[in-house]
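Objective 1b. Sequence-to-structure analysis of Sodium/panthothenate symporter.
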Amino acid sequence: MEKIKLILPLLIYLGVTLYIAYYNSPRRKKSKNFTNEYFIGNRSMGGFVLAMTVIATYTGASSFLGGPGVAYKLGLGWVLLASIQIPTAFLTLGILGKKLAIISRKIDGITINDFLRARYQNKWVVIMSSTAILLFFMAYMVVQVIGGARLFEVLTGLDYTVGLVIFGFAIIFYTVFGGFKTVAITDAIQGVIMLVTSIILFWVLKEAGGGMRNIMKTIYEIDPNLLTPSSGGAITKPFIMSFWVLVGVGLLGLPQTTIRCMGFRDSRSLHRAMVIGTFVVGFLMIMMHLIGVMGIAIIPKEQLGDKVIPILAIRNLSPVLLGVFIGGPLAAIMSTVDSLLIQTSSTIVKDIYINYIAVEIDEKKLSRISLWTTLIMGVMVFALAFHPPEFIVWLNLFALGGLEAVFMWPILLGLYWKKANSTGALLSMGISLLVYVSMTILKIKFFGMHQIVPTIAVGGLVFVIGSYSDKSSPEEHLEIFFE
């Protein structure tokens, strides 16, 4: 009976999600422009949906499981560090939003590669960016799926594989048939669920620990360093600098959040999204990481950080509340995977197949190919998740850094620097990728900093050198981007 109470809210949630996918299916609506409807939702997102889909896409397993797991090990210093992520939505929408939206309408672009192709007019830029998207998105999605299945396993007592199959079926189904619009709407719903469930767990734990004063007192007795900004020296200055780049300014290079800038309705929606998004991401980040710290006092000596949040939920929530809570982290994971999956499909279909293989193709065939591509990529991701690594946050950060290394300068300088050209973009993308992957594999660190810091610096430098070493784009072409 208790298992039914636990699983029922989750089944209701998944059922609603699948219905939204069916209702918004471009095939059911017989859309006249399938690619625009399926991959960018006909640019119809309002402020609230835009804010929540940016946040939900960015907030994944790491924010709900991995990050709080590290906070459990390092204390309040990690909460302070996680606060760097608060301006995520503001930076993305404020710096890239309006300009990218205007340009994407001019060029009729629906993917980030459409922008890069139009700006640099070089097929190798598109091929390289497509390769990077496929490579790092796959790693990023696998990490999220592992987090979801692990959560399912711990909270329901069902086998990891069972959780993987149920979880995988739901995501693949609603993404394949619903397209971008369903992904955006479900992201908004999932964002609200994340907020509600984090508040529930925080409040219950506060009561269980005898209030915040008592919880902090217990943590101080365990180890006073856990209440200091540096966690007794465990969080070094080079690490803070690295984190600031990796989950702060580097987010400007993430294709999965940048693409949202092409899909909103008007300027009013953008401005609303900047305010709502900043508040919500700040609230979620502080709340979830603080819950991780509270776990030190409530369940001390847990070895596997990723399991701290699930264990806290199991021991302190009633079956029904636990069932509702599962929706929070699962929503975070599902919203990230669905966004990456639809963008992976658009990269293969729109950026590679239509541009370089079948330039002339009718809408019916295109619709069929898009659905099958999304389905195959989804199945591949879940197949790769059958052998999970122990600590998912670090694999998550590797994929995140790889995307930032490749995309940050070509997008940012392509939007704001007239001199930027394809030579600079190619050099930056290629050398950044090489530096980042080789330094990560060989575990090379300059002054203790994460590999993304020197990678971003080198990428920016070679972009400028490459752009000055070759001629700029014709003035009439630049008018599209700088008038």
